[in-house]
Amino acid sequence: MDDVSRECLEQVPCACLKTDYPVSFAIFALARSHRAKAASMLADIGLFPGQEILLMQLAEKDGKPQKSLCESIGLDHSTVAKSVARLERDGLIERRKCPEDGRISQVHLTARGRETTDAIARVWAELERQTIKDLSPDERQALMAAAKKIVVSTAVPEEIAATCEQLSTVA
């Protein structure tokens, strides 16, 4: 473990959390560290964490209704609406009325948005490389299996099926 990682683990809001709840604290420290690394890497391409997920959803199927984005990402409408507005302002997406039903707003990638999805893939590839570089193939599989079990045991019922489906397509 390098000095930065050790220092991160030692910055405990309450020492009892680390000793009394070691698994939960380890997950907290892992999530915080990974999100900070991802945020730094995404900032290099002008994005905030979470925006890349929305853009990659559109890369898979462009023209999704905004409501569908909320459901597939698992975020509330106001959070997605703010991200969509910011991404639209930055020229990465555009909203268009559905030709069949003008009440529905469809979200489309712009040419710049498509270019950004290529950069996102490179960022995630590097993030993955850095994340797993010290893990053996067996440790990677064990981590994925443990993560899936923890998600199932901690997710609220309506999140379980979607999250398990996302995790199972990875392993």
Plain-language structure description:
The chain is mostly helical and 171 residues long. It is built from 9 helices and 3 strands; from the N terminus they run H-H-H-H-E-H-H-E-E-H-H-H. The protein has helices at residues 3-10, 15-20, 22-43, 51-60, 66-73, 77-89, 111-132, 137-154, 157-168; strands at 64-65, 93-97, 105-109. A 3-stranded antiparallel β-sheet has the order 1-3-2. Strand 2 and strand 3 (105-109) form a beta hairpin. The longest helix is centred in the N-terminal third of the chain and has 22 residues, at 22-43. The radius of gyration is 18 Å and the shape is globular. The model has no long low-confidence stretch (mean pLDDT 86).
Secondary structure: elements and pairs:
Blueprint: H1 3-10, H2 15-20, H3 22-43, H4 51-60, E1 64-65, H5 66-73, H6 77-89, E2 93-97, E3 105-109, H7 111-132, H8 137-154, H9 157-168
Helix pairs in contact: 3-7, 4-7, 5-6, 8-9
Query: What integer is the average pLDDT?
Result: 86
Could you describe the largest sheet, including whether it forms a barrel? Answer: 3 strands, antiparallel
Q: Radius of gyration from the CA trace?
A: 18 Å
Widest sheet: strand order?
A: 1-3-2
| Amino- and carboxy-terminal Cα gap | 26 Å
Share of helix, binned: 55-70%
Percent of residues in beta strands?
5-15%
H/E element sequence: HHHHEHHEEHHH
Question: How many DSSP E strands?
Answer: 3
The low-pLDDT segments are none
Task: Please state the overall shape, judged from the principal axes of the Cα atoms.
Answer: globular
Q: What structural class do you assign from the helix and strand content?
A: mainly alpha
Please work out how many helical segments DSSP would assign. Answer: 9
